Amino acid sequence: MQTNFSAAQLADPHVAESEKILRKCVHCGFCTATCPTYVTLGNELDSPRGRIYLIKDMLENGRPADKEIVTHIDRCLSCLACMTTCPSGVNYMHLVDHARAHIQDTYRRPLLDRLTRAMLAAVLPYPSRFRAALKLAGLGRPFMGLFEKLPALKPVAAMLKLAPSSIPLASPMAKPGTHAGQGAKRGRVAILTGCAQSVLDPAINDTTISLLTRLGVEVVVPEGEGCCGALVHHMGREDQALASARQNVDAWTRAIEKGGLDAIIITASGCGTTIKDYGFMLRLDPAYAEKAARVSALAKDVTEYLAALDLPEPVRKPGTVVAYHSACSMQHGQKITRQPKELLAKAGFVVREPREGHLCCGSAGTYNILQPDISAKLRDRKVKNIEATGASVVATGNIGCITQIASAAKLPVVHTIKLLDWAYGGPKPEGVSEQGLAAAE
Ligand code: SF4
Ligand code: SF4
């Protein structure tokens, strides 16, 4: 694509980076076929190619964002299916991240939208605030029907719908410290305890620590780590996202210097995609660029790490039929497609892949709150495809997808690690009925 940026504009490294990306796009439109919003809405401006044109026009003319561009960029899930499809290697992720930051800097949203976004950014990344907010959700639930009828309050209704009615206790295992590996030492890793996941399902990290230590891996929970920054990054709040990134880079650098790390284990693929991008996000900060690149190189999804570990034979071979839902951040963001399915199959599960596996479930960070109508359409489509597999349980590697799919599916939805842990001698996953897992034994 031809571009017309001035030398002065290209002096801004963010604009220069976006210009490089724009020039790679040959407007072939292949990406439109796999874009969930184009498939759902049928509007070119809600396709990757349409958004790329809008972003180009805004940046090239040095214009502040307007209502039209905000509407179509807000509808983008950042699922990155377009990057998997694109034959020209267009880095849509970095382009849309830049556009979102530009929107945040130049556009004044309507009051309720501003308040909702400010509240999400102030609550979700902080486990204690998020826990308190979930407790308060019970008070708002009786008014959910009313909120749903008022367009401006639909995000509040969506939040109430997604909030679980009971909140698990905080994990004692996820406190800073070291969990020694059993038997011969096979590695030393740090684990990201994260934010929303540690409140909604603390057992995911507990199970990961338990399985890894049983396999001989020492697991460090570093002092000072926190939210990876993905949630606010996708809202264009760059300063907040970069502050989170720096905090984590510091925490993991201390752990590296103290005893070395073979990997930084991430159990939510949405976080994994962002942490693997820290090197890029902090490339312009001389104090952090090198450290951030080192952290990104060490970041591994837990299934990616386990697949390289040469696992022993499982203790049980359940034979249970599992529908594997590949989160967008797993398959498109990190290109991890093979390892989770192979691990499940090796552990004795029968793995089925739902149709249209490339399409997003509609979770996408805060998308299911901020765009509840499109999100619900994508969720229902996903659930229909999952249920058509005839599986008795759904496995996936991202808490957002677990919450989203579980809000409409009839079958249990669990993190992949819980099924693997069960096969390798751990307890039956919480929330899955004995019958569900035993049915195919
Ligand atoms: S597939 Fe790639 S090159 Fe083709 S229009 Fe989409 S982004 Fe541009
Ligand atoms: S990130 Fe997903 S929703 Fe956004 S343009 Fe690409 S395919 Fe479409």
UniProtKB/TrEMBL annotation:
The organism's place on the tree of life at top rank: Bacteria
Enzyme class: oxidoreductase
Cofactors (names): [4Fe-4S] cluster
Signal sequence annotation: none
Catalysis: reaction(s): (R)-lactate + A = pyruvate + AH2; glycolate + A = glyoxylate + AH2
PROSITE patterns: 4FE4S_FER_1, 4FE4S_FER_2
Keywords: 4Fe-4S, Electron transport, Iron, Iron-sulfur, Metal-binding, Oxidoreductase, Repeat, Transport
Cofactor: binding details: Binds 2 [4Fe-4S] clusters.
Enzyme Commission number(s): 1.1.99.14
GO molecular function: glycolate dehydrogenase activity
Domain 4Fe-4S ferredoxin-type residue range list: 16-44, 67-96
Function as written in the Swiss-Prot or TrEMBL entry: Component of a complex that catalyzes the oxidation of glycolate to glyoxylate.
Protein name: Glycolate oxidase iron-sulfur subunit
